[in-house]
Amino acid sequence: MNFLDLFNAVARVARPAHHDFVSIDTMDLRFVDSCFDSLDMIMIGMFMAMIYDIPDEIAKEMNPTTMQEMYDQIQQHKRRDPESLEWALEQIQ
Amino acid sequence: MIYLTDYRTASTTHVELIENLSYPQKVNWFPETYNKAKLGMIYPPHKLAEKVLDPQLITKIREKPAKTAFILAAGNGHLAGINPRKIPENDLNYAYKFLPFTLTQVYAGRTAQAFGEIEYISTDATACASSLKTMMDVQSLINYYGFDRVIVLSFEDAVSNSVLEFFGEAQASLSLKDEMKGITPSAFDEVNGGFHVGQGAVLAIFESERIAVDPMAQLMGAYTASENHTNAIGQKEDGEGYQKAINGALAISKIDPTQIKIVKTHGTGTKSNNVAEKFALESIFNDFVATSYKPKIGHTMGASGLLETCLLLDDLNYGVVPKILNRTASDSRYLSEDALSPDGMILSVASGMGNVYSAAVLSTEL
Prior knowledge:
By secondary structure, chain A is mainly alpha-helical. Helix content of chain A is 54%, strand content 0%. In chain B, α4 packs across α10 and α7 runs parallel beside α8. In chain B, the strands form 3 sheets. Chain B has a 10-stranded mixed sheet with strand order 5-4-6-8-1-9-15-14-10-11, sandwiched between helices. A 3-stranded mixed sheet of chain B has the order 2-3-7. A two-stranded antiparallel sheet of chain B has the order 12-13.
């Protein structure tokens, strides 16, 4: 499963449905240059933590500024991997 | 002049019994809003609001820029659904991971930006009068501060442990004990009465005559008043608060009481409200029909005033003023049967704990 696909699917859930949404297509993108605001990023981070089973106290300290940083931090702290995109979305919806 | 140019509503007649409470009671609700609520990131009130945040309407507003204000009439400052007491574990318990997401002003800011450039964002915590109270703010913003549009979003965390415990303890909502005796929700009735707490939401767009196109109604005037009462959750039998609000709205509207023909009452059906609201209405008007939506959709609290007004406008489109459910006596004023809508203006009334009363006059004769 592609990490960017997972991120975009999770971000779509996290960002209010009535807000503009632009998918991210590169690992180098800085989140400040994306459509996601700070509260979106908090929700995305917590959803990712649920999917990868990262404890809340660690997840709350993870403040990635790029997609690559988010990926690296998840790899460092994860206690499981998502079975599929569908499975991941079931965890948060 | 101020016009109501569009709205969306969400309410339900679906009723379920919530048993695992200190005060078991039936509620009107959308159970799906609680899906995954225990994850602590998805809050039922937010899901409720999304039922009226129509992307097409939002796009329409974004494509027509104007000096715009956004008001979230939430009835409270907090949407956390918490209860400080030890209560039984039930489906209404939900966790929250980040306090900011539960504050109404934060939610207002997060939601307002979807509508494009907004000059003013505020919240209103005036309990069950909240959404109708904002009609006074709509007038001020458009008439005195140069706004051309005010977006009012209203919903409350109504079906939550906090609210159900509060209303149950205050004996305001209809108890299971009452229902087992055969009492059903109604208003202005000698036998039936009281209400279920209910989930509901409304999104309404008010615009000045400078930009309004194809309006649905004109907001003639609105007023909110307080009642001089030592009991902050009580109502005076002479309906002092209602009378002050109604007379204020009539004065702002510059109309005579005889021009009001349809009244959307607060209509909770509690004994105190029946007496106070009826006394006030009959002190001011003598030729009108009155309805209440609470027996049908439950008491949606902060959303109720404006939500029920929009539901009435829907019904008036079909030429009908709907009856008050579960009336046991024939009544052509506090309607026991649907009535053809008379020509004339509409009065909408709401009351909130903390001695607050709101009234708004609308006209569909455009």
